[in-house]
């Protein structure tokens, strides 16, 4: 069979799948990248076939592993849209999210962007901002936990990229799957809501490291070591709203604080390695505390060096953010990195789309951020440019939609 007999479409698809199998296939020789038109289709890799459940007691995208690609988007209800329109929108969005997360087409009018891909660990998470309750005449149902966050000295907030009536978090291990979900939900908003702001993020791709490990941020630091673990006895009470709460519609839910944190990378990268490590309080190579051990070793905050000074400096980020330094306050961080190009002055517009989850932001994010605000050595190298706080209700059961207990209660 000549090369002309090969289906170009099949060839490209097969070559892409072959590349995904890694170096072993590449070492077999160039001919391995070519396949006859009648060759059997290559099955999805583990990355493409992995699916998360939409229906359940809690929404997806909170305790699921971080994905390689993400979109954060906030919507405002359009003028004249109220509780009825919001309920219809959440019903549409929940149905679409359940289909997309299962790797199915969105329905009539599907754009075909994600054709040929599996679910790719797609998760879609929905939340409500403070203003949503006024616009839907549900102000009495608004929790006190949605009171505005206090101002912090590192804030340089852009109001146009902050807050919002509705918030959607999308994550997937395939960029086209993530975009398809974003485009589908944005289109489905129709006349009920319009986009207020949207941000794109990324993480390391699954399989890019020899073994699973905590992600690194754009400063090169291992980021997320101190996260509470599901195996810890107090994990649920730290992250999820308990049953019997004043607002029953939030039982099993969580509160998401969203911050766009720009990293001043030109300044950071001028620091020598030992200075970077002192700022953080951890080794850059493996995330271990400067007092020794491995990444998971608890920092010895009482340890001193030969000079009598603390090994982990008084203003080190790891010390100031430690739960024991903040009355036990903790939150589950699940961020994405971002890069939005190079500014006119040549500096990268890059940093962290910080997303953290907690049962109560007044006991989670706020006390920790106040402490950091008063003397974190990392503060000169970051700038908070956008902010949002959203109530994320519990998950939807089969035949239900997210927020149904609120909107129909």
TrEMBL record:
| EC class name | oxidoreductase
Biological process terms from the Gene Ontology for this record are: iron import into cell
Keywords recorded for this protein, A-Z: Heme, Iron, Lyase, Metal-binding, Oxidoreductase, Peroxidase, Signal
Q: What is this protein called?
A: Deferrochelatase
Q: List residues of the Dyp-type peroxidase N-terminal domain.
A: 59-203
Q: Which cofactor does it need?
A: heme b
* Keyword check for Secreted: no
Name the job this protein performs: Involved in the recovery of exogenous heme iron. Extracts iron from heme while preserving the protoporphyrin ring intact.
Coiled-coil intervals: none
Which cellular component appears as one GO term in the record? cell envelope
Q: Which GO terms describe its molecular function?
A: ferrochelatase activity; heme binding; metal ion binding; peroxidase activity
Q: Where in the cell is it found?
A: Cell envelope
What is catalyzed by this enzyme? heme b + 2 H(+) = protoporphyrin IX + Fe(2+)
Please give the InterPro entries that the UniProt record associates with this protein. Dimeric_a/b-barrel, Dyp_perox_C, Dyp_perox_N, Dyp_peroxidase, EfeB/EfeN, TAT_signal
The answer on whether this UniProt entry bears the keyword Iron-sulfur reads no
Cofactor details (free text): Binds 1 heme b (iron(II)-protoporphyrin IX) group non-covalently per subunit.
> Which family, according to the similarity comment?
Belongs to the DyP-type peroxidase family.
Q: Which residue intervals make up region (Disordered)? A: 280-308
Gene encoding it?
efeB
Q: Where is the Dyp-type peroxidase C-terminal domain?
A: 214-395
